[in-house]
Specification:
This protein has 15 helices and 10 strands. The chain has 427 residues and is of the alpha+beta class. It is globular, with a radius of gyration of 24 Å. 30% of the residues are buried.
Length: 427
């Protein structure tokens, strides 16, 4: 904890000690900066186009909520830039979300920006849009290269307007839409009780699916849960979000603060793995059929999928957990880890490639995943019965837990709410 010098911090978590017992109001206070010192410093740095990165290498309390103000305001790694988004008549920018400094309403100041950062722009229409016409959006970024050259990059997008909800649902982009839900939920954590945020996320999902049922699928039986094809996984990702690190009440304050900071700049391809990680069966890789992709098909996040005779890889874009069952075939352990028993696998694990097809295939998968992620993907061994094993199973979001419903129960819950709203409106 940086407890000396400018912006010195104290161990605030000890005052409201307890991640589980800390009430909502106390937790919200701990997720806000301790004072204005670091915020004022961050704004001054941004005005001088100075970007700050923070590297954290300890597991003890650090007050990430206060420290993260500096990298979030100054943008982190990359190029200095100024961004502005313009829209055609009838539309206007309502809000920007991300890591930046904003001194005037129309421009976003980015002391640094790189290809792994995302700025979310929320739009609203303040005039009637003609059906069949097109609306346009333009994003212009003025930036300085590492060679000191000033350049401008302009991206323009034109989309058709429609008044028909079937067209809207048919063209829905689940990844982008869910990323918006995720960022909106993260922005509320420091000011609203977690239970209210979880309810709002669930109600938002219900509202979308209710609109589809009411306006686009009236011929179907009321006893069926009808999901739009483009958004059929929305309930699953919504459930996963309610059980995520940011919205769980039993997590460490620093973990929640880091999650909030990470979500603020996360891109759409990384948003879903963060709350619904990819689960891959490793022990039978050599016998699995693939569709030509290096990475095999993923498994549902349910403990029913986990065998104590198997080895599984679970990755969320930041970390990769390798769960090793206590009854794995010694031959498989020898091929993958060069040992004959689970106890011989070191806690500080370094992946090596051994001279066999299973090990080669596993290394290819790890390298391919790393190629698509913006971080190196830390590897951690998880063993049955260890705290690491509990960490692995905490990601099985389709299971019923003391904090939430199972996926099947959640679908029933969603369907019940949709049916009730339809019934109330038909009276």
């Amino acid at each position: 904890l940086p407890s000396v010098g400018i912006g010195a911090l104290s161990a605030r978590e000890a005052e409201g000690r307890a991640n589980v017992s800390t009430g909502d109001k106390e937790a919200q206070k701990l997720l806000q900066p301790a004072d204005k010192t670091l915020r004022e410093m961050a704004i001054e740095l941004a005005e001088h186009q100075v970007s700050v990165d923070v590297f954290l290498t300890t597991q003890s309390y650090l007050d990430i909520a206060s420290i993260s103000v500096v990298p979030r305001t100054t943008g982190g790694q990359g190029f200095e830039a100024v961004m502005r988004v313009r829209c055609s008549q009838g539309l206007q920018v309502q809000e920007y979300t991300g890591n930046f400094c904003k001194r005037i309403p129309t421009d976003v100041d980015l002391p640094a920006i790189d290809s792994d950062k995302t700025i979310m722009v929320t739009l609203k229409h303040d005039d009637k849009l003609q059906d069949g016409a097109e609306c346009s959006f333009q994003c212009a970024i003025l930036y300085t290269t590492v060679y000191g050259q000033r350049r401008i990059r302009v991206m323009t997008l034109s989309l058709p307007c429609t008044s028909g909800l079937p067209n809207l649902f048919r063209s829905a982009d689940l990844d982008t839409q869910f990323t918006c839900f995720l960022k909106q939920a993260a922005s509320e954590i420091s000011i609203s009780p977690l239970s209210q945020i979880r309810d709002r996320v669930t109600n938002h999902c219900v509202g979308i699916l209710h609109s589809y049922r009411k306006f686009c699928s009236t011929a179907q039986s009321p006893g069926q849960l009808i999901l739009p094809e483009a958004l059929k996984l929305l309930p699953l990702y919504t459930l996963a979000l309610t059980k995520s690190t940011g919205l769980k009440t039993d997590g460490r304050i620093d973990d929640r603060a880091f999650w909030m900071s990470y979500v603020s700049f996360i891109s759409a391809p990384l948003a879903i793995p963060l709350v619904y990680p990819r689960l891959i069966s490793v022990h039978d890789l050599s016998s699995e059929e693939t569709d030509g992709s290096v990475i095999p098909l993923s498994l549902p996040l349910s403990s029913e999928q986990i065998s104590y005779q198997g080895i599984y890889l679970l990755e969320n874009g930041i970390d990769a957990l390798i769960h090793v069952g206590n009854s794995v075939d010694p031959n498989i352990l020898q091929q993958l880890f060069g040992v004959s028993s689970v106890d011989e696998i070191p806690t500080q694990f370094v992946l090596q490639q051994h001279d066999n097809s299973l090990s080669k295939k596993f290394n290819e998968i790890i390298n391919e995943i790393r190629r698509h992620r913006c971080s190196y993907l830390r590897l951690q061994i998880c063993k049955t019965g260890d705290p690491t094993g509990m960490s692995f199973f905490s990601n099985m979001v389709e299971d019923k837990t003391p904090m939430g419903l199972s996926y099947v129960e959640f679908l029933v819950h969603i369907h019940r709410h949709i049916a009730k709203q339809l019934s109330d409106q038909s009276r």
